[in-house]
């Protein structure tokens, strides 16, 4: 494994920790700032909004810059946002700081995915992307629980200062381990990057991300009441089960990267089909503690198997603008977060039962399969060669390739 991937994983670990830790610190933040829990929940939305806006915007405006420089700059912005979060005197300033912290999130993963693929052999490019995302999934296993525990004992502000230190470590790692001569951006510029987003296959790939990961968040957003009300777990045991989800996500991420190097589209279809099955079985699996624990782990595995193939396919479809398209895929992931949670909430509000969000998620996963099927049909109609159907990851363009119209 190139050491540069370790630098990307360190940055991903810090970003993943700061994104999800707020959910565990909401009661502490609400008490300290004298606001209600629903009001404190806006801090989660502020971060997600920053991701959605910052992902395509920052990728586009930095299109002509060295990708190494861009990654270091994005992590510097991440550190500033977290320091300001720790020092925020009130709700409004904390909202602004959380928005600022979210801005570099999508662009870092988008540009980082392109850098990861340029440093790997053609047959290992999907695996390289999955190793970068390993930092994000591992954040759910260790980073978020540790940061939540630290916040509960030393105050929530200490958590964000600690995450800032991780960001500084990532900056040092990026500067030391990523060779400058491998990260020059293509000469397409802002206009070329934006033009690549007019491609129908790119939008179909992004639509698959929204539907597929919307399926995950429809269920995961309400997994705590499922575990307590349906499976019978005590609230104190939920944290350990959420870490089990992180383990499943880590396994799925690594498995998806390995499989996608051999059959990218087949891995995507297999992951989405597995997600449909797991979510459809949730009402049954949530009837006992052992099967509910298994369901949580399988949910993480099935969902994150699709991560690497989706990232690679978006980049391949936007051959002249892989950084922008890859960053837009991260914005799509966060739209899936918000949209999936909303749809799962509708199922609960309609009185269909505590496990109904998972059934709604299964329907979204079916929709994701349908969008992926349409994308496959479009590629076939356009005469995509069979070899690229089976090894899309081998043709993520680097900066020396010519740009196709």
UniProtKB/TrEMBL annotation:
The GO terms this record gives for MF are: transmembrane transporter activity
| Protein name, as recorded | MFS transporter
- Extent of the signal sequence: none
Per its UniProt record, what InterPro entries does this chain match? MFS, MFS_dom, MFS_Efflux_Transporters, MFS_trans_sf
Keywords, ordered alphabetically: Cell membrane, Membrane, Transmembrane, Transmembrane helix
Transmembrane domains' residue ranges = 42-63, 70-89, 95-117, 129-150, 156-179, 200-223, 238-256, 268-286, 292-310, 331-352, 358-378
- A Pfam family that the UniProt record links to this protein: MFS_1
What are the Major facilitator superfamily (MFS) profile domain coordinates in residue numbering?
4-380
Tell me where in or outside the cell this protein is found. Cell membrane
Q: Its principal location? A: membrane
Q: How does it sit in the membrane?
A: Multi-pass membrane protein
An example of a Gene Ontology cellular component annotation for this protein is: plasma membrane
